[in-house]
Amino acid sequence: LTSVLSFFVLAGWSLGIVEAVSISILLGSSVDYSLHLADAYIDCCLNDGAQGSAALDAIETLNFDQQSSSGLDEERARSGGSDPADKVAMRRRRQRLVNEALARVGGPVLHASITTFLSVISLVFCVVRIFVEFGMIIAASVVCSVVFALLALPALLVAFGPSHMARGKSSIHRHAMAFAWASMIAFAGVAGLYLAD
Questions:
Q1: What are phi and psi of 83, to 5 degrees?
Q2: What are the distances in angstroms from CA 64 to CA 16, 69, 161?
């Protein structure tokens, strides 16, 4: 949302009534694709945990230890003595979960973005200027949203996503962390728009 709006502000557009209406629509549509992927990732993580893949993670760690024990010494020296095999095993697990989530919802998310883009791009050829601006804003939002959902979000999940989740545990902590992250991202977006303006 902020990247789309900052693009149009930098392009010389003033924030008027069309942009105000577009913002109310963009708030929901800009996070839609990312939410589908994040939900699929959490579902894969919960299902994977329910199937007891701790044994698979132990095998992956053991294979990693056998393959590169000399590389572990170098990695351990660089990381200050912490065990890099655990980090690598967790990263591999997160990568496997991201691959599974992308296999589940990656295609439908991409196809949904294509159909949405094609439906609003026809507004660009209208005679009425309001529809042209509205179509450009929504089309740019769809492109930014799907690029973030299918490229940036999977990379962030591999790097920082949860690797183990269990059903039935209290989700208050997860909701608080999600709210904190969303607040920081929103603040950064507003600050970026302020600096761009």
A1: -85, 105
A2: 57, 8, 21
Per-residue pLDDT tens over the stretch 67-106? 444 444 444 444 444 566 778 888 899 999 999 999 999 9
First CA to last CA distance, the chain: 15
Q: What is the C-alpha to C-alpha distance for residues 18 and 52, in angstroms, rounded to an integer?
A: 52
Rounded CA separation 18/5 (Å): 12
Residue 115 CA neighbour count, 13 Å, CB half: 5
Q: Are 47 and 164 in contact (CB under 8 A)?
A: no
